[in-house]
Amino acid sequence: xxxxxxxxxxxxxxxxxxxxxxxxxxxxxxxxxxxxxxxxxxxxxxxxxxxxxxxxxxxxxxxxxxxxxxxxxxxxxxxxxxxxxxxxxxxxxxxxxxxxxxxxxxxxxxxxxxxxxxxxxxxxxxxxxxxxxxxxxxxxxxxxxxxxxxxxxxxxxxxxxxxxxxxxxxxxxxxxxxxxxxxxxxxxxxxxxxxxxxxxxxxxxxxxxxxxxxxxxxxxxxxxxxxxxxxxxxxxxxxxxxxxxxxxxxxxxxxxxxxxxxxxxxxxxxxxxxxxxxxxxxxxxxxxxxxxxxxxxxxxxxxxxxxxxxxxxxxxxxxxxxxxxxxxxxxxxxxxxxxxxxxxxxxxxxxxxxxxxxxxxxxxxxxxxxxxxxxxxxxxxxxxxxxxxxxxxxxxxxxxxxxxxx
Length: 406
Ligand code: GLA
Known about the structure:
Bound molecules: alpha-D-galactopyranose
CATH architecture of the largest domain: Alpha-Beta Barrel
CATH superfamily of the largest domain: Aldolase class I
Strand content: 15-25%
Distance between the termini: 60 Å
Structural class: alpha/beta
Largest sheet: 8 strands, parallel
C-alpha cells in the first residue's frame, strides 16, 4: 500500500512537472479590470481618496462591474497592480498590504470581491523590488504564493523589474510550482517574455505557455492611439510565433484596454476593442468605471465583439493583408467556416475597402451570412467570390462576423 502511494506521488509530481501550470484557468482570454494604466502608483489617499491605490478603489470598481453590466458581459477579475504593499514584510517574512490604504487587509478585500461574484487579482515581482520599488518576491516565492492563496487571491501578475533576466526561464516556473502547490487555482500572468525581448533574448514561448496562463510580450500601453498602434505593429511582426502558442489556458497579453480614458476617440476605442478581440487578448480594462461615458461603456459591453474574443478555439488572429493605411486581420473561429475580420484604418480619412472573401481564407462554396458587429448591423449574404466592400472609418476599425450560408 505504502509502495503504491509512493508510486502515485511520483506519478502526480511527474504530471505536474511535465505540464507546468495546472490550474484549469483561462480557457478563454481572462476579462476584468486592472488599476495600473489609469491609476498608476497614486498612493496619496489623504488628498485623493477616490483615485489612490487603496481598498476603496477596488471595491468601487467591483461595484461598478456588477451594477453596470460588466460582470454580465464576462468581466470577472478585479486586479490590484503595483504599489499596494507595505514597504516592509511582516515579522514572519510575509508581504502585507499598506495598512493606511488597505485598512481591512487583502483577505477582507478578496471576501468583498467574491461576495459580488467576482475574482481578485494581485501583483508582485520576480526580482528584489517591484517596478514601483515595493518588496519583490526573490527568495520568497513559496511564502508569497502561500500568502496569496490564504488571502483568497485568484490571479497573480508577476512583473520582472530588478531581476536577472537570465534566471527567468527557471525562476518563473518555480513560481508556477509554488502556485500549483497551494492547491488554489490562481491565474498566472507572467511578464517574463517582455523582459527577455527587452534584453534581446528570444523568449521560449513553449516553456512560457506551459507555465503561465497569460504573458506580456511587449512594452507597457500608454493612454494614446500611437501606443495602441505600436503594440499592434509588434503583434503583426511576431504573429507567427505568437499565434502558435495562443490556446485555451495560454494567451498573449498586449496589455490593458484604455477605452474610456483620456485619449482615444470613439472610433479609436472601437478599434482597440476590435483588435484585442481578434488577437484573443485578455480584456483587462484600465479606466474609471465610475465616470466612464456611456458611448465608451457600450463599446466595452459589445457582446458580439466579446464573443469573438472568447471563442473557444483560443486562436490569435493574424494580419492577412496590408495596403497603405489599411490592414486586414482574420481569425477562424471554433465552429466550421465561421470567421471574424477586423479592418484597421490608420489613416486620416474613411476608406472603402474591397476584397474577395475567398482571398482572405473564406472557402465555403455557398457563401456566408455577414454581420457588422461593431455597429450591430446585418449585412446579409455574400458570395466567397465577388467584391465585398466596406467603409472603414478614419483612425478606426470595422469588424465582421461571418458564418456559412445554408
Ligand atoms: C511594469 C509593468 C506595468 C505595471 C508597472 C507597475 O511597467 O509592465 O504593467 O505593472 O510595472 O510598476
